[in-house]
């Protein structure tokens, strides 16, 4: 989560609910199995309900209300290591729970906060028992009275099933829309593609007149376009207003910076930015086409994995918000990414040791994605992952290296 998240509203809420639980200050490394299993039970229950937060560092007063905001010592805060805690909790969750552990400081006191996300496809079942806190084969749920317990009423089981079916229908719908659009282009779609290609060529020519390929840099070209071409569909004022609104929803963005919007200007057909001191430009055309192209520095032939993850996280969130502001909902948005000058370049920062790097053996990488704006907005991290993974595969990164990709993207975006 970003630094601007309002942690005070969570920590000082003072009332437990189906989305919030408080725990007194404690050290994870000193907890016995039963104590750790309680955390797993809360995580399972919240993930199967609405998602939520478990705040560690808030004790109860004499009346049992969570009003003692003690915070954690430095040693206690460090003990809630996401890897160690995650390995234990997900041993009792099938499928694994998508959660992160944040350690915000509020009023000069440190807390550990479990940020638990609602299940995406299937509800989480407990595959093994543990110290009378967890029972094998049980679906835990979180109730309005702040209880994390097994789902034993028919209505509760029915709600879990219905939610899982709804998630599966949404996933299937996204897949079908993408397959149908990517596999079959109507004459109108082909004509639209031709018009958009012409605008892309003009944009690339404008860029190439001002910037030449340089050693020590690699190129990225990113475009997004609706399926229908309508020249002059949007006024230049509408484009600027939509871009500013989209940016303001995610200000910490590695894709477009604040000063780029401030210096963007209107051409005859687009809102254009050529940031001073960079080798980059982007344009939003009146047809709805977005195009970014630029050269980015290498670190001794190394491309940072973290840079790519941040770039694509920022790209998808900005594009989803931009097209939402422009009024697109169910219409597929065609996204295309090309990386240039990457032959024999290495991707670094993926391994536990900084020396681990992976090499690309082709001069150019191209990845495409077709999704409706509503889908992009629903889970931008999942769609950003669909750009990051194939790019990394071209660097010959083994599949096992992507285990933490989705949680990392969600942490950046949320």
Written description of the protein model:
- With 414 residues, this protein is α+β, with helices and mostly antiparallel strands.
- It has 2 domains: 146 residues, Methyltransferase, Cobalt-precorrin-4 Transmethylase, Domain 2 (2-Layer Sandwich); 228 residues, no CATH class.
- Helix content is 38%, strand content 22%.
- It is built from 12 helices and 20 strands.
- Strands 12-13-14-15-11-17-20 form a 7-stranded antiparallel β-sheet, with helices on both faces. A 4-stranded mixed β-sheet has the order 1-2-8-5, covered by helices on one side.
- A hairpin with a 5-residue loop joins strand 9 and strand 10.
- It starts with 6 loop residues before the first helix and ends with a helix.
- The model has no long low-confidence stretch (mean pLDDT 87).
SSE arrangement:
Layout: H1 7-11, E1 20-23, H2 33-47, E2 52-56, E3 58-60, E4 66-69, H3 74-79, H4 82-89, E5 99-102, E6 105-106, E7 109-110, E8 112-116, E9 140-142, E10 148-150, H5 154-183, H6 187-210, E11 217-226, H7 236-249, H8 258-263, E12 265-266, E13 270-273, E14 280-285, E15 290-297, E16 302-304, H9 305-325, E17 332-340, E18 346-348, E19 357-359, E20 364-372, H10 373-378, H11 380-394, H12 405-413
Parallel strand pairs: 1-2, 16-18
Antiparallel strand pairs: 2-8, 3-4, 5-8, 6-7, 9-10, 11-15, 11-17, 12-13, 13-14, 14-15, 17-20, 18-19
Helix pairs in contact: 7-9, 9-11, 9-12, 11-12
